[in-house]
Amino acid sequence: MVNPYEPIRMLSDDHVEHVHRASLTLLHTTGMRVLHPPARRLLAEAGCVVDDLMVRFDPELVEEMVARAPSSFVLRARNPARDLTIGGRHVVFTSVGGPAFASDAERGRRPGSHAEQAEYLRVIQALDVIQQEGGGPFEAMDLAPETRHLDLCLSLIRLLDKNWQGIALGRDRAADCIDMAAIALGTDRDGLAAAPALLTIVNTNTPLTLDIPMAEGLIELAGAGKRCA
């Protein structure tokens, strides 16, 4: 779906530039806490100033890295007709990611199960207006927490022919998502690096903190050549 209209401008170009410059100043003077030691080492090697847990970013470095991001890119789906273009004027409708509970009109709100995850994914597959699975439904509380992400990825692969978002919560979970996506698409990590299939959300914590699991997931995905947001 392509939006034929110009985006609504809530701020003037000058105001947008002011917000951007203020953000760069905040990253340069205050910085942010990075709790993962390997991530701090990588940032120091890239030219950041690291003082214990605090990392401060040179504005020119930030702008150089941001400039490398493509204006648009394609994410593969198991069904090539459902490949997605991200960026530009393309609009993508996704399902919600990471709700805490399962809920419906008949059974109310409750902890989710693996079987109910499958119900949720079948609804996503059936609704043509939903073009991408958005990052995992509620947790399957009837499965072991150490391996339930594997069951989720398997369900995503089996029940959807649409694109689905990966998991960045820790190195192992991110690595498993990458490898399972590659198997599902009949390729390997090099093939995914050349033709990406995973988009993953990496969240920071308030105030100005990147925690260990998110840093691990980000490093694993970046190392595999994926698009990260």
Question: What keywords describe this structure?
Answer:
41% helix, globular, 229 residues, alpha/beta, 4-stranded mixed beta sheet, 2 domains
How would you describe this structure to a colleague?
- Helix 5 packs parallel to helix 6 (171-184) and helix 6 packs parallel to helix 8 (212-223).
- The relative contact order is 0.13.
- This protein is an alpha/beta fold and 229 residues long.
- The radius of gyration is 19 Å and the shape is globular.
- It has helices spanning 13-29, 37-46, 59-67, 114-126, 148-159, 171-184, 189-194, 212-223; strands at 32-34, 49-51, 54-56, 72-75, 84-87, 102-104, 108-110, 132-133, 163-164, 199-200, 209-210, 227-228.
- Helix 5 links the parallel strand 8 and strand 9.
- Helices cover 41% and strands 14% of the residues.
- It folds into two domains: 11-68, no CATH class; 71-228, no CATH class.
- The strands form five sheets. Strands 2-3-1-11 form a four-stranded mixed β-sheet. Strands 4-5 form a two-stranded antiparallel ribbon.
What value does the Rg take, in angstroms?
19 Å
> How many DSSP H or I helices?
8
> β content, as a range?
5-15%
Question: How many strands, what sense, and barrel or not for the largest sheet?
Answer: 4 strands, mixed
User: What class would the helix/strand composition place it in?
Assistant: alpha/beta
- In quaternary terms, these chains amount to single chain
Average pLDDT score: 94
Helix amount, in percent?
A: 40-55%
Intertermini distance: 21 Å
List how many beta strands DSSP finds.
12
Anisotropy-based shape: globular
Main-sheet strand order equals 2-3-1-11
List the secondary-structure elements in sequence, H or E.
HEHEEHEEEEHEHEHHEEHE
Number of domains: 2
